[in-house]
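USER: I would love a firmer grasp of how sequence relates to backbone shape in proteins. This is the protein in question:
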Amino acid sequence: MGRPAYLRLAVLCAALAVGAAVQAQSVALSGMMGGKALLLVDGKPPKSVAPGETHLGVKVISVAADEALVEINGKRATLRLGESPVSVKGKSSGNKIVLVADSQGHFIGPGRINGQSMQFVVDTGATVVSLGMNDADRMGINYKNGEPVRMSTANGNSNGWRIRLSSVRIGDVELSGVEAVVTPSSMPYVLLGNSFLTQFQMTRINDQMVLERRY
């Protein structure tokens, strides 16, 4: 015997809801409202979501003063006010990185160097990964044992150090032995240069940059 019409309709609606949830592409934290996170999913209007609630496939686990811990496709991520959206396109295979452009067109995202959290910005004009001395000191990198190099910057010439980072990780993708330079000036982001980028095929799709490993 076939299902009643109302039951078939309910099943269809549930299937559509699940389909919509897994199609979410990016999520950002646009504000806080009491004990709720104001989520911006796929550019749709902000929605206040309390811990334990789910909006368009994004479940809020907990909230703090300026950040929210969310779960997307079974994986957890921390959203912070003022940071670029986090890509939530499916589960990573360990071979692909998806970065979403900010309002100025820069591809910025969180990652790790030698296991420690950093913010990266893609810079295809940089020969190698570049980080400031302050970040290197914070991570305990003994960069002064590296190769001294002469660098040309917007403020003139300066001395830096060429090193190899034990690991650079973005999402589920990690590379080992990545060449980098440490600059004497502080930098708001780590420049994700070609010593990392050339290991990937880069594709620009609207406001997303997709990096797929070549090897």
In short: The radius of gyration is 21 Å.
